[in-house]
Amino acid sequence: MLATLASAALQGIDAELVHVEVNAGEAGEPHVIMVGLPDTSVKESEDRVSSAMSNSGFRMPRTRTTINLAPGGMRKEGPFYDLPIAIGLLIATDQLKADNLEDYLIAGELGLSGATRPVRGALAMARLARRLGKKGVLLPGVSAEEAALVEIPVYRVDSLDEAYRFLSGERPLLPVASVPQGPQALTAAAEASVDFSEIKGQHALRRAVEVSVAGNHNLIMIGPPGSGKSMIAKRIPTIMPAPSLEEYLEVLSVHSAAGRTIRGEMNWGARPFRGPHHTISDVGLLGGGTLPGPGEISLAHNGVLFLDELPEFKRSALEVLRQPLEDGEVTISRSAGKVTLPCAFMLVAAMNPCPCGYLGDSKHECRCSPTQIQRYRARISGPLLDRIDIHIEAPALSLAELRSDRPGETSAAMRTRIETARTVQQRRFTGTRTTANARMTQAQIRHHCALRPEVGDLLQQAMEQLNLSARAYDRIRKVARTIADLADSPEIQAPHLLEAIQYRSLDRTLFY
């Protein structure tokens, strides 16, 4: 007897339909044969399914049985197919009678006791089921809660026996209740345990961070150890506008494909913040593996990627950032296939001004020679620096600032101004793929960042006198546009431009 069920395979962060076909009662020696390009973990499902069925009161087929995972040209990996294979065996051996099973998408790992265990990519599977018009999805507990974010009935099955009773009609199940949705729910759920009010001093740095977030500009902070660079970076997500539901589903899809859940490592409703160590490999940062999966830049999608001690990262690892920073997505090609992963992140980097960290510090003497300083800073290539809009110095705090108990401005107050500026940008770019000033095309820069003649002359004078590179020209105009948005100004004024020029310090000191 032939049984056919619908399941899925992960391809990057997306799910592709897989038909699980089980045919029992074939002539020949009793044996289970699995075909359809299964990897080792899929082949091992035969042993897991056998024990799970036995401990749940069912029996394995006593004839030759073929299990096909179609399409045969797509490689299958992971324990996604334990549950659909077990249900298929029950139907093929006439232990379960159920109609229209292909109307459901089923996935789940089975323990030897018959209990189900979560799988990666539950959200992608639910989105696939909705796209295909399925009646619902059957998933293990935590995976079902995650998939319930998608508008499709999701049924939680905690064991093979429970799935059997539901499909046979013995025990109806109610769909998993969806968690609160919408920007307001996300904002309430993402209340952070850290706040910008905890930052002492650093008024210029706080301002630069506000401008950076308002326009989604990449940012680099240069300052001695202990000046608060890392502390500020970790609080940047608290001033970012709450993600829309679609943005958050994209974030959750990436993290779900990586095996992270909203109950485990994910913070519900919060934008991601990723801070990899400088020893990370190219693959760890970019993504990849035998079966390509998301790396740190994709895990930071719609959030912040923080690279502390930027010059300490391997040159090759930094250079792979160049194309993703421009495109907001990364394509990874491996022998097992090619996938495109989203990675529209805001880059926040931090570095010391020199190897010892105390160049320009009035309280510590710098021990580095000019050659050592130049070699240290030259680890950041010009093309990478070209993609960082704002460079800001973070001076050491004075003793008076450290002793002060006066709280700084809260994250909520900063976020209010930023959301207002983002609203202006959303209206400006309606009908285009651009979402913020930092993503403007050349045509949009010419249109939205036009300068009056006297303001343009001011920029030309600054370019010549400060020895700014040509690549800084458009960056300055984009940042000035964001500063004007924060000031609710329809056009770029001289003060906006002058402030933007201050944020190109590395252009003046590094590569000339």
UniProtKB/TrEMBL annotation:
Domain of life according to the entry: Bacteria
Gene Ontology terms for molecular function: ATP binding; DNA binding
Keyword annotations: ATP-binding, Nucleotide-binding
InterPro entries: AAA+_ATPase (IPR003593), CHLI-like (IPR045006), MCM_dom (IPR001208), Mg_chelat-rel (IPR004482), Mg_chelat-rel_C (IPR025158), Mg_chelatse_chII-like_cat_dom (IPR000523), P-loop_NTPase (IPR027417), Ribosomal_Su5_D2-typ_SF (IPR020568)
Protein's UniProt keywords contain ATP-binding: yes
One Pfam family matching this protein: Mg_chelatase_C
AAA+ ATPase domain mapped to chain residues: 215-398
UniProt record similarity statement: Belongs to the Mg-chelatase subunits D/I family. ComM subfamily.
Protein name according to UniProt: YifB family Mg chelatase-like AAA ATPase
